[in-house]
Amino acid sequence: MKVITTHNYVDFDALASLILAKKIFSQAEILIPQNLNKGVKDFLSLYKDEIFPMKALAEHVVCEDLILVDTQKPPAEIVEFKNGIVFDHHPPFLLPAGWSGRIEAVGATVTLLLQEILSRKLQLSNAERTLTALALYTDTLSFTTTSTAFADIEALFYLWENGFNQTMLQRFANLPLTDKQQDILHELLENGMVLTIKGYNIQIFSTRQDYVHGVNQIIKSLMDIRGADCIFLILHEKEKALIVGRSITEKINVGKALGNMGGGGHAGAASARVLEMKLEDIVTQLKKYLEKNIEAGLLAKHIMSAPVRTIDQMTSVSEAEELMNKLGHNGFVVVDKGKTVGIFSRRDLMKVKKHGLGHAPVKGYMSKKVLSVLPETPVNQIQKTMVEKDIGRLPVIDELGNLKGIVTRTDLLRVYQEEQTRTNP
Length: 425
What we know:
alpha/beta, inorganic pyrophosphatase (n-terminal core), 3 domains, six-stranded parallel sheet, six-stranded mixed sheet
């Protein structure tokens, strides 16, 4: 007997991986865990006649070959097997001794299985392609997670070329919150804990429930609303809990954080189940781990341009324009006797030129409310300030009032590009 199975609380990547694995191992039987994400349950209710039949994973399963997808841990219901085969995209990226298959750093397990299918020249139905596309979109958060790889884009390109149901993709990849989920979201937003650790915004939410349907949708809503670098959601009842983590930065590895608590996942998404731990103990353990293991983020002093080209407040508008054109700058810090008194930007210049006031000193037209940052200000805080205030440059001024440098939008974009290059060389 050959069995294909996956982890509990089946998501779209797990479901699609079961189906794709069945295409490869046609003699195997799919045994699906009983707990399904709501979107998966709804999808199956529509498509159950168009995909391979599945049986519920029961107790005390004995098989010859065990084929695991989207997980490396055999379910407790599998009590005995001889040969192990695994396809997964979670760390550790190393096949267990005696096992075969593929464990690689991609955004979704279906990417690996689709490569296997194409190498065997097997065909997929429209329903199977639609499900695979759903797995790719949902597991990579629309190809935005740091774990997304070029191979995932190639998989999407194949699906796009061959066609899938985009209406179903839109419907299931963007499920609206149910009334109950909205109630839970409001409760979480009222009781969240905000931490700043090494410059990163980390938020921890908790609710006294042991399971919530559509937890991934709630997490996504929390990320969208709160704009955090990392979020942990704790579903707890008495002294047992499910912890779900999401991170949008490579500096905070939630897979390792929750792996430390007996769970698993990858850098951007992970979960853990813990027993005999009170909520306050879970929070304390998370905080201690994060404070010890988060890599320090970049600060203003690391990315600023220095020395700063300044102009005196008595410099004429025409002279400032000539300097902008000559140096390729979009603005200057304006000083008076060495002290920063304003910013004169190209936006200010364009306003003045309309009135033919090129001879006038910039002091009359500069922005006098100078927003600045300290050398130790985290990069993510700089970005937040620029976006909220709609400004393109921030002087870096120390506690003594000395101008040390300047951070521009260009500096921020360069940093993010370098981070992307490190993540996906």
